[in-house]
Amino acid sequence: MAKNKGPRRPKAETPKGFRDYFGAEVTARKAMLDKIAAVYHRYGFDALETSGVETVEALGKFLPDVDRPNEGVFAWEEDGDWLALRYDLTAPLARVAAQYRNDLPTPYRRYAMGPVWRNEKPGPGRFRQFYQCDADTVGAASVAADTEICAMLADALEAVGIARGDYVIRVNNRKVLNGVMEVAGILDPADPSKFEAERGIVLRAIDKLDRLGVEGVRALLGQGRKDESGDFTKGAGLSDEQAAIVSKFVNANEELRLEMWAERNEYDKFSPEWDTRIRAALLSDPFFNDFGKDKASLEFWNNRICNYLEELVDKSDIGLEGVRELREIGALLDDLGYDAKRIIIDPSVVRGLGYYTGPVFEAELTFEITDEKGRPRQFGSVAGGGRYDDLVKRFTGQAVPATGVSIGVDRLLAALAAKGRLEASAQGPVVVTVMDRERMSDYMGMVQDLRAEGIRAETYLGNPKNFGNQLKYADKRQSPIAIIQGEDEAARGVVQVKDLILGAKIAAEATVEEWKSQPAQVEVRREDLVVTVREMLGRHR
Amino acid sequence: MAKNKGPRRPKAETPKGFRDYFGAEVTARKAMLDKIAAVYHRYGFDALETSGVETVEALGKFLPDVDRPNEGVFAWEEDGDWLALRYDLTAPLARVAAQYRNDLPTPYRRYAMGPVWRNEKPGPGRFRQFYQCDADTVGAASVAADTEICAMLADALEAVGIARGDYVIRVNNRKVLNGVMEVAGILDPADPSKFEAERGIVLRAIDKLDRLGVEGVRALLGQGRKDESGDFTKGAGLSDEQAAIVSKFVNANEELRLEMWAERNEYDKFSPEWDTRIRAALLSDPFFNDFGKDKASLEFWNNRICNYLEELVDKSDIGLEGVRELREIGALLDDLGYDAKRIIIDPSVVRGLGYYTGPVFEAELTFEITDEKGRPRQFGSVAGGGRYDDLVKRFTGQAVPATGVSIGVDRLLAALAAKGRLEASAQGPVVVTVMDRERMSDYMGMVQDLRAEGIRAETYLGNPKNFGNQLKYADKRQSPIAIIQGEDEAARGVVQVKDLILGAKIAAEATVEEWKSQPAQVEVRREDLVVTVREMLGRHR
Prior knowledge:
By secondary structure, chain A is α+β, with helices and mostly antiparallel strands. Chain A has helices at about 25-40, 55-60, 90-100, 145-160, 175-185, 195-205, 210-220, 240-250, 250-265, 275-285, 295-315, 315-335, 395, 410-420, 440-450, 465-475, 485-490, 500-510, 510-515, 530-540, and strands at about 20, 45-50, 55, 75-80, 80-85, 110-115, 130-140, 165-175, 225, 230-235, 345, 360-370, 375-385, 400-410, 430, 455-460, 480-485, 495-500, 520-525. Chain A folds into 3 domains: about 15-140 and about 405-425, 2-Layer Sandwich (BirA Bifunctional Protein, domain 2), CATH 3.30.930.10; about 160-390, no CATH class; about 430-540, 3-Layer(aba) Sandwich (Rossmann fold), CATH 3.40.50. The first copy, chain A, has 20 helices and 19 strands. Chain A has an 8-stranded mixed sheet with strand order 2-6-7-14-13-12-8-11. Chain A has a 5-stranded mixed sheet with strand order 16-15-17-18-19. In chain A, β4 and β5 (about 80-85) form a beta hairpin. The two termini of chain A are about 55 Å apart.
């Protein structure tokens, strides 16, 4: 480069893995976040905005699936210290909770919205800067706090336009999973460091249930799994017996439903016909839609699933504590009127992150969309969270109980787009065209009158010579209306008001006869400009 | 560090020069930005959000007062490329305008709001991440575009709560300054590279007029200036004659006012008494408040100042073009009803940035505040901008005319705070206290009823054992009301509703007698909870 003659032009490019957001992409996200913030605020949470930059040591290495420090973050050195862009909103919260612990109220309830950065390999639809939207309660040990977060998440989803019935929030408890691991012999309460690697593999395997299915998870619990491309992933090495215990936990929701169906129909669940295909057919039985619809059946379901789990964790103290907590959450949700159609106890949800210590939850959208290959599939997860009691302890040495939720902003936006629920419109401004450069202040005066009435409007400010360019501009801006006033019109005190939406429709669809009866352009007196525009805009609401 | 035994705890600290924003600090800024965005939107501007990260080569080295590349930005290397955090919103806009030039409408009008980062030495009140709020029109060569930006800035300031009369937007033109430099012999149109350093010093000197005063600027135009600490700043080395020409330009506004005053009072402006003190006294004459109040005097003022400048730039082509543009801007503003109390032509404004090529403008708040040392001073500048026709050219080789404004978000917020105009309240939620842990769902039910009516409320989720802590929590949250229901109240179907604002007032001010007549705590039936709370909140509106 140093050898180049003359100035080299820089490339006008977004850096790899980053993107720009235009117009309605920005305002639609903002409208959605505003609605979520309103729910969080009403729940008593306070806003917090930390900066994008943290010290590397404060961030720690809690990034999922990343073992080496600094990996996965954008970091740079400054006078011997390392700074980095935050990779989520939880690590900065832990830092804030520690730093201001003497000044903040206890519990400290905060919400935060903003970009986070991950130094990952960019992929299709995967960006290195994206938004998160979190709410957390720090300093509350009671599961009432977890319950509230789940209820708030349901309210937030409904507030942005996800209809009841189109989502479900699944709640589980890491303590129950730990109990199951204890029973399976891969967790020794006396020495938690034993089998740590195995437990990590189990956790990640369960977290992939959606993608790999029951058989795939089972393989990962055992010796390992070869994927379609032939790559082999090493498993946790559990014996068949151990894996069966874990599987029984993961499949609790489905197993229990089938058990209940079998009971009702006096059917032998364990008969040889009971294979996967029959299971699937059974699960579409309307019977399964009745769980949790009324208070009695919800109580019954909560009770059944907790009994099932209690039996599974056997005499594990931590496991039994987890089940007790689930019972409590279930009862509170029940009292508050959140039925199992909205929030349900479901042991298949574990959340991949290592730092959860108690209740975990995940919001899933249950409506179908069409994937890239044209196949229908459920939309899937848009938010998740849980209890993490050790994050603040890193700084202070004292355990601080905390629980919270993070909404995947882009995923939720995509869901709203799929449901046609995006609020922001891409409609452009009314464009006042410029026929006569010398009368700029007349045109700007028209725009001023429109704006004064709250109508989005602008004068064409490009080179006015080519009138066609002005209409092309209005078209590109998706303008609903163009205003035209040439010398002749100015002399007569009138303006032409052109309905561009109707014009486009007529051009595309109408016959010549229809065109005549529906003039897309009207001439009105200058003083009637605003009222005419308002009326015309009203047509297309 | 490697020698330390045991795990070392990370420090819970915001990195140097960064800060955290809590509660109302976040929501007040958001409320202000929302209002500005609404004005920008109504003017037909579209939102744009680029990522925080750009390639260093795209950013260029336009950071003010910084000559070396990368200096002043946070940058890091990635696979041989350098990435950096954006230091403003204009450089990313130039990149976007070049990158998407075939898809964007022309002109492209966009607004952007968000954090920018500067790798500067942190100082008191000076942070390395702060918000900017910009609007720009790219691809419009006409000064109608500059005029519109000025008008929009005035509207935006009024929309957020700066009263008319509390701000003034000063407009100047770099072309006029260039004409003056040509006349002073430090700009040779045939060889623009000559005297570049001198012109840079002149520009920065004029930009410091506010801080250094006329004499300080004069010194910097000449040999240089020694500041209070004894540090010497080298001047531009202009001769007295050259410096006098530049000074005449800088002081045009004041000189012309005095000239007009002298004319009216048939006073000899150039008499020996005409010293600084007399000037100051004269400038406080009500006569000076009359300029621009009505259309006639505004036209008169615009005309006079343009004549004054025309005379000053003599036969410089670029200078005369600049004056023509100022006349046009003045006439348009006049037609649109923006009088000189809101937007005025004032040659003392030059803006420090090197990249401006035409009209420049700056919004100043004219009301007095008290500075750190208790002295009254004018609030000063909160926004500025201008025309920059060469930024996009860096990428494409083709000149693209552009003009825009940037609002200093933190400065404007501080101004609103000083005027008591901040919208967001720090009021916390209604807190439902927990007297009986077993009845958590009753308390959460109360909160649910309040929230359903749009009232911000929460159940106390900390350890409920110590009731005093619950009231301390409500106090710290600035809660207006606490709800209390013990076993006894529950049995009787009532709740205690405690007005914490009134309670604090009574505790601070009232005599015992007054206390009796104004109970800060009432007992109401559980079903009257919501209506009682609503009424109580109404008291303190």
